[in-house]
Amino acid sequence: MGLKLDDIKGERSSESAIAGITGLDRRTVKKYLDEAELEFTDGKSGGKDYLLVDAIRALIHASKGQNSADRRNDAQARKLELEAGIIEKNYIKVSEIAAPVRAYLGAVNREVQDSELEDDRKERLVEKLKDCYGEQEQLTGREIENV
Residue 8: is its pLDDT beyond 60? Predict the structure, then answer.
């Protein structure tokens, strides 16, 4: 039927053994188990032995992104990626294009108003322009946007 947690209750394993069971490298296992602050005993080879059930639970918990250090690292990596994008000219500041976009939306609005379209068609177009303007205003509050 497969292995159940009850089958391994009370079993102790070293970081190396847990790494072998899970397929993770030993340093990753050590990092997650240390962060989980699990109780351990001194192992035969001088390392730490953990209750296998607790260790597996801690590794599952860490793999679900519950680890604050991982979230912090992910946020830092995202920030660096955005900063590199600005330097490489893949991103621009919304504030740099806000005025030209407003001017363009205003010009299109004037053209629609001056056109010979039916009034209900004009209204629909003006509403769409207002939506675009509103979205652009929301973006202006953000630091950068993907071009």
Answer: yes
